[in-house]
Structures are given as structure tokens and as C-alpha cells.
Amino acid sequence: MKAFQIQNLLRVGTVAAALALGGVAAHAGGHGGHHKGGHAAMADGGMFGARMGHMLEIVNATDAQRSQIQAIFKAARQDLSGQREAGKKLHQQLATLYTATNIDAAAIESVRAQMSAQREAAAKRMSQASIEAARVLTPEQRARIGEVMKKRMARHADRRAG
Known about the structure:
periplasm; mainly alpha; Metal_resist; Spy/CpxP family protein refolding chaperone; 6 helices; signal; Cpx_auxiliary_protein
């Protein structure tokens, strides 16, 4: 293999590793989604996303509802906090594998699968938290959030189309 091809392979591997770690970190560490109320963005697109505080304002959530929902997501973030360090280690393993003299496809696939499993576990935990939080709201409040989400999805679709 020519030196140029090896350099390109290393670049692609590094980018892939960075993207994979970014996903793990977003799920595990709650980054990228802190807004009013201090809640992490939902990676699974659940009812409670990055703008949860805003959503709770729209539905006129009571102080008791807000407190319960904040506690639910705080517990979920705490449950996932240990994944951040594990994600860093997987990223380091992947970077080492991509920069090795010989590329070990089976080892890279193994680390990729571990990263994927970690993201899936985080998404599942956040989905559980979202379900718990939805149960705190009334059916009318959930319906109002659903209306807002549909409007947002339509606006995003229009932007992509145009």
C-alpha cells in the first residue's frame, strides 16, 4: 500500500473514531443539550429533548411536575455518568488500532460493536427516563407537546426541501 493510501486510511479512521466517541459522549455525559432546567438532549428523539424547559413552559407544567421530571433526568444522567470514561477508553483503543502498522479489522469491528452497544444502552436509559417523565404529565399536556413536535418536524422538513 502506498504512503498516500495509508495516510487517507488513518484520516478516515480518526474521523470515524471521533464521530463514534462523540455519540458515546453525548449519550453518556449529557453534553450538547443543557438548556433551561439543566437537562441533556434526548438522543432518541423522545418527547423530552434539548428544549425540555421550554416544552414544560408551553404546557404550563406545575412546579411539582417540573421537580419530578428534573429528578427523573438527573437520575438518568447519574446512571450514565460512568460511561464517559468507558467511551474515552474505547476511543483510545480505536485510535490505536487505526494507527497500528497492521490494520486488524476484527479488532476494529469489536471495538465498534462495543461503542454501539454503549450508545444503545444509553439511548435505552434515556428512553426509560422519557417514559417516566411523560407519565408525570397529563394526557392534555402530552398532546400539546406532540403538536409542537409535529410543527417543528414540518419546519425542519421544509428547510431541507427548500
